[in-house]
Design goal:
The chain is built from three helices and no strands. By secondary structure, it is mainly alpha-helical. It has a domain of about 80 residues. The longest helix has about 55 residues. The N and C termini lie far apart (about 100 Å).
């Protein structure tokens, strides 16, 4: 009888301990969510403050100039890096001199080279 009572007490104690651990984990999780929320709020306020500071320092004309410069740099970078290679019978003959702009390639597609009636012969 004593063994059954001791076993029941130990089992109930373990069960209540597990419930307490589970409850504490939920409380810790809620506290972490709250800390993250406050940090996000603080970062959002800082972002808005920085945007207001930048908006106060720049005029619309300066912003347009910066955007145009960024677009021109991006276009130049794309033209330098992403050179299209036109289709050739011998791909090994493609070199930097043979590379063309997209506009030139469109012309080639619309107006095929003379003597290139077909590929099969």
């Amino acid at each position: 009888m004593f063994a059954k009572l001791a076993t029941a007490i130990v089992v109930l104690g373990a069960m209540f301990g597990a419930l307490l651990v589970n409850r504490q984990e939920r409380i810790d999780t809620a506290a972490e969510i709250s800390r993250i929320h406050f940090e996000l709020e603080r970062n959002e306020r800082e972002r808005i403050r920085c945007e207001a500071e930048v908006a106060g320092l720049l005029t619309p004309a300066e912003i347009r100039t910066l955007v145009e410069r960024i677009e021109k740099d991006a276009t130049a970078r794309e033209a330098a890096v992403l050179k299209p290679i036109p289709f050739r019978e011998d791909p090994s003959s493609a070199n930097d001199d043979a590379l063309r702009t997209p506009e030139e390639l469109r012309k080639l597609v619309k107006e095929p080279a003379r003597g290139a009636e077909g590929f099969g012969g």
